[in-house]
Amino acid sequence: MTDSQNEQGDDRTADVVILGAGPAGLVLGNILLANGIDCVVLERAERTHVQQRARAGFLAAHTVRILERHGLAAGLHRRGQTHDTCEFRTQDGRFQLTYSALGQGEPHTVYPQQDLVCDLLTHYQEAGGRISFATEAVAVLDAHSHRPVVTARKADGRSSRWQARYVAGCDGRHGAARRALPPATVRHRLDHQVSWLGLLAEAPPSLDAVGYAVHHRGFAGHMARTSTITRYYLQCDRGTPAQSWSEERIWDELDLRMGAKAYGPLQRGAILERSVVDLESDVIEPLRHGALFLAGDAAALISPSAAKGANLAVLEAEILAQALTDDLLHGVGEGLDAYSPRCLTHIWRAQEFSRWMIGLLHSPPGNDSQASFLNSLQRSRLSSLRTSRSQQDWFATHYVGL
Ligand code: RFL
Fold this sequence. Notes:
Elements: H1 3-8, E1 13-19, H2 23-34, E2 39-42, H3 47-52, E3 58-59, H4 61-69, H5 74-79, E4 81-83, E5 85-90, E6 93-98, E7 108-110, H6 113-126, E8 130-132, E9 135-141, E10 149-154, E11 159-169, H7 176-179, E12 186-201, E13 210-213, E14 220-224, E15 230-236, H8 247-257, H9 260-263, E16 271-285, E17 288-289, E18 292-294, E19 300-301, H10 309-330, H11 334-361, H12 369-387, H13 389-400
Parallel strand pairs: 1-2, 1-11, 2-8, 5-13, 11-18
Antiparallel strand pairs: 3-7, 4-7, 5-6, 9-10, 10-11, 12-15, 12-16, 13-14, 14-15, 16-19, 17-18
Helix pairs in contact: 2-6, 2-10, 4-10, 10-11, 12-13
The structure holds 8-demethyl-8-dimethylamino-flavin-adenine-dinucleotide.
């Protein structure tokens, strides 16, 4: 079905109305469609924007297995690359961990999120899935009834109402799903007090590993995306405008923090994208409000320090799809009742590990005695990771696990 047919159609009902066409919404839509469930995806952005938005790249083996189970992994098997090593560069030298060979570690598949989103969209639409781009969900009404309603507005100002049995809020942290939650909903929130300048460089990866540089000037990270594109991060002061660093300054600073003099220069290239990311986390509890369910970033925002966000989104989408299918096809609602506690267990484990990674990678600010104490703790943590096999096993298990 074409977009224009989708958008012009009079049909304004669906058993499941999905808000948002990111990894969570599209995995959910694909599985529901394959299970014969009537659904529609409403996406605020234009199609081209959704297909080009570069974000995640590291997919855990668990995520790949979910995508395989539902026939959604052909693209990542064709074009993704396997990755299983990270390298830490510190004032005490560097060391590598091949996490796939430690603990319950497994390799990652490196596959840009926008490529995954393109695959999921293509698969969904080829299977006849309904999707409406440039359609912003404005509100979710009557979430506690059996017929919740989503009101939506097109980019040209036209509005529409969608009646549903269930609404899946996969529309991120600023979406309509979160706005529809009752005041009693708990929002746990933590500002990690760290900011990163996130960069996409038109340059091949310079290491065969994820690079984490712990430097007194701040953290620097290197993550492969494709053979010609690499993601870099540079810790920066909170409030730094993304454009304030020249390309030369960015590369010089990356070279410095990553120890290019000792370990070899980085391959430079044009900076294609840059944005400042304030490292924050939050968790909504519970993830269900009547007929409204939250998944992905709408359910919990997780700092990118351990690359968990897209992986959690896919996991939650599969759990929700199964629960909705059981209810809608077989009248079995236990899965829906269990959805929130089940996902929250995974979310809190991922949050805990991401927080641990932030402590591992960032030197505390200041020169006072507290900073020097925390600095020594960080050094000790790095030293255990370098030398203790049980610590390495623990790291590997949590680095790729959910
Ligand atoms: P998305 O991908 O944000 O999709 C939500 C969609 O909802 C739409 N939307 C609405 N649509 C209709 N009505 C409304 N009112 C709407 N409001 C919003 C938006 O346009 C959008 O299309 O959420 P989803 O599906 O939950 O997926 C989550 C992931 O995108 C996110 O967690 C990851 O990108 C996080 N993340 C990473 N995760 C990993 O697992 N591995 C990584 O390597 C990794 N790297 C990253 C990351 C996030 C980053 N940013 C954004 C801070 C690197 C970066 C720089």
